[in-house]
Specification:
Layout lengths: L3 H4 L5 E2 L8 E11 L5 E11 L9 E3 L4 E7 L2 E2 L3 E2 L3 E3 L7 E9 L9 E5 L2 E5 L19 E8 L4 E4 L2 E6 L2 E10 L6 E4 L2 E8 L5 E8 L8 H18 L7 E7 L6 E2 L4 E5 L12 H16 L8 E2 L5 H19 L2 H20 L11 E2 L8 H18 L1 H15 L3 E2 L1 H12 L8 H4 L5 E9 L2 E9 L14 E8 L5 E10 L3 E6 L7 E4 L8 E4 L3 H10 L3 H22 L5 H11 L6 H8 L4 H10 L6 H18 L4 H7 L10 H18 L5 H9 L3 H13 L4 H11 L3 H13 L6 H8 L10 H13 L1 H4 L5 H14 L3 H7 L11 H15 L6 H11 L2
Parallel strand pairs: 2-12, 18-19, 19-21, 22-24, 25-31
Antiparallel strand pairs: 1-23, 2-3, 3-9, 4-8, 5-6, 5-9, 7-8, 10-11, 12-15, 13-16, 14-15, 17-18, 20-21, 25-26, 26-29, 27-28, 27-30
Helix pairs in contact: 2-3, 3-4, 4-5, 4-6, 5-6, 5-11, 6-7, 7-8, 10-11, 10-12, 11-15, 13-17, 14-15, 16-17, 17-19, 18-19, 20-21, 21-22, 21-23, 25-26, 25-27, 26-28, 27-28
Bound molecules: (3S)-3,7-diaminoheptanoic acid and zinc ion.
Length: 854
């Protein structure tokens, strides 16, 4: 035992131990007397003991609270207080609990509970932050109505629900919808609003506001439009209306994640709501639209129906991610959204699912729940909903979800409740399908084919490797969308969904005149790894002809991957057939520019490393990086004649609009510029930089210049132009690292941590620098170990201030077993160093221990 943290074993919580709270919470009345270091919180809570309580103990969670007084039915009591909460002898009948506590919002750097950001008060209670505000049964299955009184000098005092009264120095709010404490929110600050309104389909008028710091008012219009579109979409697609008189969104600069769906008072990381053409990229606009939708959709999937316990987190997150993806597909291009989501799934969820942090979509144990807001819970959780919908069909899906809302409104539910509505409304047995929630790991789906006398057979076999704590895996239900093409590229079998349920299973197609070319796993119908012996010629054929745009892209992606692997392993030249195919595709004006931009997007270097690792090779990050450069240069030379023309054709004349078509055109234009920059001495990038009237083009040009090591002047100019804008400066910080040569990435990141505008206290800034370092594959994995060391230094420095953001960033090390033994030794020594830090948080300790246990 080397450290204090290691000496105190952290408690593990288990799904199997679920026991309901022994008391009903009939009502909650809170009064806040705000003061930066000495806020007083008075709670008046009516509890009624449950007659049949399995656990009759009265335990209220509470952490870092200074208890001033406690009363039961008006009489002072002396509870037993520990670091986790308090217990107290209580009456056997309904009673009023009153407590007064003092807390220190200005000293709260963990950004959980009530804290201060730029002089404003705000809260973050999910998952277990409410216990840092007052003593309470802080668990999602305890739901109650809340009335809140806020006393403070700030101009704007907000909480959940509807406003009751507003006077100088005071405001009262009442939320009529019973909710768990994690959805509580309070904001107080000198804010200004961007107001609007919405009339629901049943005629209810809703006041809408986006609250921001003075000066940011002109960055709210896009978010407001996204909110109104989301409200309309949820009425049309799911029949869900908004249920309060007011919906408030507040932008906060210091925030651990993207946003939070507190009832009627969503709190957003300012990077996920503030938008203007001059300061936000197309990607920012799209993300803002999606996150506003996501948080709004939680009003039904999360708030009206919540989770029984945190093991059920995917119940609200997987479903809400699925809903926001449907929304984006409807607002933009469905195939472009699907391709982007799969790129993201493979970049974040697949490595998690195949490494030491692998866990089921519904985990069965955790130490720190904040460590389980993962790509598995969110994105794989959403994939499961997509599979379910594909298996039962669109109409049956809608009927089942309607039943879910009817049956469970106002309840705290489980995955069993969710699957039951599908079983009841479709008559299907979902027992086997449920394995998707229980079994961790990404299934590998091997496929072989045969053709004889007009009959074409696909033989599938599914296998899932062992994951931590789960050595054996059972076969899952896998919906495999398949289409068949003939030699001319015509479809001879339109998309059909094969339902695989066995470990090995064959499917036959009769009456085919010749052996077809299969298009398997169309639209990426299941989150699996498809393994098939397939020639590059067949891939090129699918890239040219498949009617399923996802699989067209997939074929191109596989060609790109194989070309890189051959370059890395054999020193081969970039595959010329692939270069020919790309050349044809990029000039095909019938194809959506956004799609062409995705086809031109190289596979990530981390993906190549993973593919090499899976084939039994040890990936060399430097070689992978060099291959990427060589490939890009060769492609640029191949397209040399057409690049200026393509650049001109994809340049938009006239003002900036963030719509999907324009954004797609700019994405393609950016890809062309990055190729052109390799040939023209960065002239065009320099011209674009100075001519740009929007952030997308300015940043693309700057990135091209910096990658060519010709951006010194423009980078300095960018810094001067934007130094007052925190969100734009995050982009500048990230770009300095992302564009650095591999052997300088760590040194540049290190210098940036000494920049006057760097601060550990702002998660966005920390992520800009350290996230960019972790994402710089050859830089982070440079053989010197400087990248590993720098990240570890900064994680250790941040942990005492902000455990959540520290623990999240530890995932940079999760793929360490892919690399050679010197690198593994370097990484494990950094992980050990973090683990032995005195007073290490439970969050970081759990992450580092799990990664080390690989
Ligand atoms: N529910 C929040 C995430 C809370 C994270 C707590 N560590 C945002 C979202 O998923 O919508
Ligand atoms: Zn969510």
């Amino acid at each position: 035992m080397t450290s204090e943290a290691a000496q105190t074993e952290a408690e593990t919580f288990y799904l199997k131990d679920y026991t309901p709270f022994g008391f009903e919470v009939d009502s909650v009345q809170l009064t806040f007397r705000l003061a930066p270091h000495t806020t007083r919180v008075l709670s008046q809570i009516r509890f009624t003991p449950k007659a049949d309580a399995a656990d009759p103990r009265f335990f209220l969670h509470g952490e870092k609270l200074n208890l001033i007084s406690a009363k039961i039915d008006g009489a002072e009591v002396s509870p037993q207080v520990s670091a986790e909460g308090l217990t107290c002898a209580v009456p056997a009948v309904s009673f009023l609990w009153e407590a007064e506590v003092e807390i220190d919002p200005a000293g709260n750097t963990a950004l959980e509970g009530l804290y201060m950001s730029n002089g404003m008060y705000c809260t973050q209670c999910e998952a277990e932050g409410f216990r840092k505000i007052t003593y309470y049964p802080d668990r999602p299955d305890v739901m109650s109505t809340f009335s809140v009184r806020i006393e403070g000098d700030e101009e704007v005092l907000l909480s959940n629900g509807n406003p009751v009264c507003q006077e100088q120095g005071m405001a009262e709010w009442h939320d009529p919808w019973p909710k768990p404490a994690y959805l509580f929110a309070l904001v107080a600050g000198d804010l200004v609003n961007h107001p609007d309104s919405f009339t629901t389909r049943s005629g209810k008028e809703v006041e809408l506001n986006i609250w921001v710091r003075p000066g940011d008012e002109d960055k709210c219009a896009f978010g407001m439009e996204a909110l109104k579109k989301s409200m309309t979409w949820d009425e049309e697609a799911y029949g869900r209306e908004y249920d309060l008189d007011i919906f408030n969104i507040v932008a906060v600069d210091d925030f651990n994640m993207g946003a939070m769906e507190n009832k009627g008072l969503n709190i957003f990381n300012s990077s996920c709501v503030l938008a203007s053409p001059e300061t936000s990229t197309d990607a920012n606009f799209e993300r803002i639209e999606a996150i506003i939708a996501h948080e709004y959709f939680h009003n039904w999937t999360g708030n009206r129906i919540t989770c029984r316990d945190w093991f059920q987190l995917c119940l609200k997150e997987g479903l809400t991610v699925f809903r926001d993806a449907q929304f984006t597909s409807d607002m933009r291009s469905a195939s472009v959204k699907r391709i982007s989501d799969v790129i993201d799934l493979r970049a974040r969820q697949f490595p998690e699912d195949q490494g030491p942090l692998s866990h089921p979509v519904r985990p069965e144990e955790f130490q720190e729940i904040n460590n389980f807001y993962t790509a598995t819970i969110y994105e794989k959780g959403a994939e499961i909903i997509g599979m379910l919908k594909r298996l039962v069909g669109d109409e049956a899906y809608r009927a089942a979800v309607d039943l879910y809302f009817d049956r469970h409104d106002g309840q705290a539910c489980t995955i069993e409740d969710w699957l039951q509505v599908f079983e009841d409304s479709t008559g299907r047995d979902l027992a086997q399908f449920k394995r998707w929630y229980a079994q961790a790991g990404t299934p590998r789906l091997q496929v072989a084919e045969s053709y004889e006398n007009g009959t074409y057979t696909l033989n599938f076999e599914q296998k899932t490797a062992p994951t931590p704590g789960q050595p054996d895996k059972d076969p899952r239900v896998i919906p495999i969308a398949v289409g068949l093409l003939n030699d001319n590229g015509d479809e001879v079998q339109p998309t059909t969904v094969l339902e695989m349920t066995q470990a090995k299973q064959s499917f036959r197609f009769e009456g085919l005149a010749s052996k077809p070319v299969p298009s398997i796993l169309r639209e990426f119908s299941a989150p699996v790894i498809l393994e098939r012996e397939i020639s590059n010629a067949e891939r090129a054929f699918l890239l040219a002809h498949d009617s399923d745009l996802f699989n067209r892209w997939e074929a191109g992606n596989a060609l790109a991957r194989e070309a890189r692997i051959a370059m890395v392993l054999e020193g081969a030249a970039p595959d010329s057939a692939y270069l020919d195919a790309l050349q044809k595709l990029v000039r095909d004006d019938d194809l959506d520019p956004a799609f062409r931009a995705l086809v031109l997007q190289p596979p990530s270097q981390s993906d190549i490393a993973q593919a090499l690792f899976e084939r039994g090779h040890t990936p060399d990050p430097q070689k992978i990086g060099d291959a990427a450069e060589t490939f890009a240069l060769t492609l640029a030379q191949k397209l040399a004649d057409s690049l200026p023309r393509l650049y001109a054709d994809t340049t938009i004349d006239g003002g900036y609009s963030p719509d999907a078509i324009s954004a797609g055109k700019r994405a393609l234009n950016g890809r062309i510029l990055s190729l052109l920059t390799r040939l023209d001495g960065a002239d065009q990038a320099s011209r674009q930089y100075y001519a740009a009237d929007n952030m997308t083009q300015q940043l693309t040009a700057l990135s091209c210049l910096m990658k060519a090591e010709k951006g010194g002047v423009q980078s300095a100019a960018f810094h001067t132009q934007w130094q007052e804008d925190r969100l734009v400066m995050d982009k500048w910080f990230a770009l300095q690292v992302a564009c650095a040569p591999a052997n300088q990435a760590a040194a540049i990141a290190s210098d940036l941590t000494a920049h006057p505008l760097f601060t550990l206290k702002n998660p966005n800034r920390f992520r800009a620098v350290m996230g960019a370092l972790a994402g710089h594959h050859p830089g982070f994995h440079h053989s010197s170990g400087a990248g590993y060391r720098l990240l570890a230094d900064n994680l250790i420095a941040l942990d005492g201030l902000n455990p959540q953001t520290t623990a999240r960033m530890c995932t940079a090390f999760q793929t360490w077993k892919r690399y050679d033994s010197p690198r593994q030794a370097l990484i494990s020594s950094q992980l050990e160093r973090i683990k032995s830090t005195k007073g290490l948080s439970r969050d970081t300790n759990e992450m580092v221990s799990r990664i080390l246990d690989a």
